[in-house]
Every structure is written in C-alpha cells, then in structure tokens.
Amino acid sequence: MAKPTQADAEAAVRVLIEWAGDDPDREGLLDTPGRVARSYRELFAGYATDPRTYLERTFEEVGGYDELVVMRDIPVVSFCEHHMLPVIGRAHVGYLPSNRVVGISKLARVVHGFARRLQIQEKLTAEIADAIQDILEPKGVGVVIEAEHSCMTLRGVNTLGTTLTTSRLRGIIRDDPRTREEFLRLTRA
C-alpha cells in the first residue's frame, strides 16, 4: 500500500472540517488543511527515525564514574493512539553505567523519538527503557513518565489536571532496593 501524500492528508482534514459542520472554503479555514497536515508531519516525526540509533555513539572514558546518571523533566509530547489527542508530560530517565555512557542529549532524543508516534504511555515507557538497556547494556535502567492525557481531560470523564504515572525499571534499579530508592528519590519533583 502506497503511503498517503500531502494532498491526501489535506483532503482528509477538509472532510473532518465538513464533518464537524464548518465550511473548509471559509476564509479562516482555507489554509487549515495544509497547516494541519504539516503539523502532523512534525508531531509524528518519530515514525521517520529509529530512536535507538541515538544511543549508538558512547563514551568509555568515564573516569571511574559508577553512580546513577539521571536526566529529569524531559518534555514528552505524544498522541493517544485511541483518540489521537495530545499526551503531554515529563519523562525522567536514568541508568547505572557498566563501562560507557551516552551524551545526555541522546537521552532526550530517545524520549522524543518514541513519543512522536501514536502511543499508549505504558508502551512508551517500556520502549525507552528497553532501548537504553539493549544498546548501552548498563547495570540498570529506570524510566518514569508523568503525563496528562487530553483524551481524559478534554472529553470523556473531563478530569482536568489528572496525570498518569508509569515506570519501567530494569536490572539493578529494579532488583536492588537501595538503588531503586535512590533512582526514585532522584526523579521526584
């Protein structure tokens, strides 16, 4: 099956505008189909890349560093795969290196790469943790995501301000109570 074109996407947006009850030829909506299609290309950019590749360049000169590496408050912008509405929150990612580390910007890129797809938060959390574990082979990995789901806050049960928290702990971060507690303490706001 051929991938839909920009024109196909714009035509679909025109149909949605009509379905909603408005006129896509109205002055204020004339350029909306193009804008929406372009914004979706950006919002779903995670399909155009393999986020795991960001972790391939590592550094072995760590000066004997053998403690947790934790990056907090990485912005998460994703879309609920059930309603195609925004999921907005923060990810906290950490790992205990075994013999190499990755540039810190790569952790944020991995989060963004997996988030910029249609997702459920549980899968997103697992994909990030599993990629770090598989590529870096650290002693342990932890990922915590806290996010607000527009599918719950803007429609349905209308529970504005609620967040969902998910976690995926691997290796020593899961199995050693002290390391687990340290990781969870470092990721709390």
Word description of this protein:
It is built from seven helices and seven strands, in the order ααββββαβαβαβαα. It has two domains: 40 residues, GTP cyclohydrolase I, N-terminal domain (GTP Cyclohydrolase I, Chain A, domain 1, Orthogonal Bundle), CATH 1.10.286.10; 139 residues, GTP cyclohydrolase I, C-terminal domain/NADPH-dependent 7-cyano-7-deazaguanine reductase, N-terminal domain (GTP Cyclohydrolase I, domain 2, 2-Layer Sandwich), CATH 3.30.1130. The longest helix is centred in the last third of the chain and has 16 residues. Helix 1 crosses helix 2 and helix 3 packs antiparallel against helix 4. It has a five-stranded mixed β-sheet, sandwiched between helices. A two-stranded antiparallel ribbon has the order 1-4. The chain is of the alpha+beta class. This is GTP cyclohydrolase 1. Keywords: GTP-binding, Hydrolase, Metal-binding, Nucleotide-binding, One-carbon metabolism, Zinc. Pfam families: GTP_cyclohydroI.
Provide a compact summary of the structure:
Belongs to the GTP cyclohydrolase I family. The protein is of the alpha+beta class and 189 residues long.
Total strand segments: 7
Overall shape: elongated
Portion of residues within helices: 25-40%
Q: Mean pLDDT score, rounded?
A: 95
User: Which architecture of the largest domain would the CATH scheme give at its second level?
Assistant: 2-Layer Sandwich
Order of strands across the biggest sheet?
5-2-3-6-7
Succession of helices and strands: HHEEEEHEHEHEHH
